[in-house]
Amino acid sequence: MAKPIMAKATAVWLVDNTTISFKQIADFVGMHELEVQGIADGDVAAGVKGFDPVTNNQLTQDEIDAAQNSPLHKLALKFNAAAQGEEKRRGPRYTPLSKRQDRPASILWLVKFHPELTDGQVSKLVGTTKPTIQAIRERTHWNIANIQPIDPVALGLCKQSELDAAVQKAAAKKAAAGEVMTDDERRKLVSTEQSLGMDAEPKIPTAIEGLETFSLSDDTSDDEDDNTSGLVDADSFFNLPSGGGDEDEQP
Questions:
Q1: Residue 63: which of 79, 82, 83 has the closest Cα?
Q2: Which residue in 68, 158, 159, 219 has its CB near the most CB atoms, within 10 A?
């Protein structure tokens, strides 16, 4: 549900100028009921000037009257045709100042692990410019030596669903072009939901990699018994012929 602009100031005006319940005002402006009660008590929004929603084309007087007459009536924002589609803006998204320093790391992650994404897709995901993306792709960025790739989802620059949608779109475009993908590229083009649904493949520990043909069972006990049966006692190697040396020493 759409919320009015200047929600707190609108709540102040409604508290001061109407008899609408705190619950109705809270639902309309997107605040907690106790917070609206705090406005009425003077504990919240002290010094905030009320914002008239009727004059500013956000509510009609009929809507206010209906809410005052019925505590169950929910205030509805006035329809504004000019505001339709406003939430679907084109171009790069706005990135808060606190997260702008993380954009190069997320761009490097996308370029490294999803090279199939276009500069336009990367720009929309993390809210950056194409020259910056191109500089990181070509490793000519001024700070490229200190940039470490970090998942933009982990940094909060985009949602996992948005990244998956961009990856799937790139996969469909590549398939339509008839380009042959390698196994690594195909794995990168799999969404998170698909990868989580795959069966886990058994992996061989690196310590015994290359020894797959050898058995690790206890069947070698029989072979060891056969080998030990053929062993010769050490004394037999040093057992000299009897009496041979004594005969030569006699005069």
A1: 79
A2: 158
Tokens of 209: 């990699």
- Rounded Cα distance between 1 and 4, Å, is 10
Distance CA 74, CA 66 (A): 9
CB atoms within 10 A of CB 118: 14
Structure tokens at 215: 């058995």
**Which pLDDT score is estimated for 69?**
92
User: CA-CA distance, 39 to 22, in Å (whole number)?
Assistant: 10
Give the mean model confidence (pLDDT) for residues 64-92.
Answer: 72
Q: Return d(Cα 165, Cα 163) in angstroms, integer.
A: 5
* Alpha carbon separation from 126 to 92, 96, 151, 154, 242 (Å, rounded): 8, 11, 11, 12, 94
Q: Which two tokens stand for residue 3?
A: 């919320």
- DSSP secondary structure, the chain, as one string: ----SSHHHHHHHHHHH----HHHHHHHHT--HHHHHHHHHTSSSTTPPP--TTTTTS--HHHHHHHHH-TTPPP-PPP-GGGTTTTS--SSPP--GGGGGGHHHHHHHHHHH-TTS-HHHHHHHHT--HHHHHHHHTT--TTGGG-----HHHHTSS-HHHHHHHHHHHHHHHHHTTPPPPHHHHHHTS-HHHHHHSPPPP---GGGTT-TTS--SSTHHHHHHHHHHTPPPHHHHT-PPTTHHHHHH--
Tokens standing for 250? 């006699």
The pLDDT score that the predictor gives to residue 239 is 61
What would the pLDDT profile of 30-62 be if each residue is shown by its tens digit?
888 888 888 888 888 778 888 888 888 888 889
12/47 Cα distance (integer angstroms): 10
